[in-house]
Each structure stands twice: as structure tokens, then as C-alpha cells.
């Protein structure tokens, strides 16, 4: 079913989240969806990609940087979840968060993923891609309490 590489699968998920960001700008109540997507995304990206890249001396710095950025983003996600949405500062906070997130996503897509594609074999990239698609569907459906999307097949 899935012949997608891990970096392509992660980039697709980045784009899904970029669409969600546009939704949230119109409707703040959608924020929780983005938080759930990012929680699942960070966890799987670290388990299926960064953990391997952290062992490669050429990619390690970039990979560890990505991991540290996840840490910062996770703190901001928690702050946004706690902060009252009816306070006008919420949207300002959200926009600052989006700037940092966008920087992070582009950096991964432009620097980290091309390096990962060089370092990992085609077979490894596809196996991790398949695992990502499966685990993402499972964990998101648990987090959102909905059925996995039919489009995954
Ligand atoms: Fe990512």
C-alpha cells in the first residue's frame, strides 16, 4: 500500500499542518487539532528518523537541532493550550508560534531531509515511510477518536 519515503511522508504531514494553520486563523477552536497533529508528528519523527540520524556524524548536528526545536515548540503548544482563547493576545501568541514553526518545517525540508535521503538506503526510507503512515493513522485516530481516513489506503 505505501511506497512513500519517510521524508516525503513527513513533508506531506507538514503541508497538512500548514493547511490547519490557515483554518485556525479563521477559527481558534481548531487549535487542538493542530496540537494533536504536532504531538504525533514530533514523536514519530524522532522515533523513526532523528534517532537514526543522531548516529551519523555528518547529519547529527542538524538532527539534534531539529530535536531541540521540537522541545521549544512543545512548550509553546502547551502555552497556547492553556492561555484563554478569548484574550486578544492568544492570536498574537499563535502567530509568533507559527513563525517559529514555519522556520522549523522549512529547515527540515531544505536541510535535514535531503541529508537524510543521502544517508539512508532507499529500502530503509520506504520502510520508515510505511511505518510512519501506519502509526500516524493509528495515533491520530486514537487522539481524535475518529476512524483512520480511507485515503490512507
Ligand atoms: Fe517535521
TrEMBL record:
Source species: Draconibacterium halophilum
Gene3D superfamilies assigned to the protein according to its UniProt record, in alphabetical order: nmb1532 protein domain like
InterPro entries from the UniProt entry: Hemerythrin-like (IPR012312)
Annotated Pfam families: Hemerythrin
Domain Hemerythrin-like: 5-115
Entry protein name: Hemerythrin-like domain-containing protein
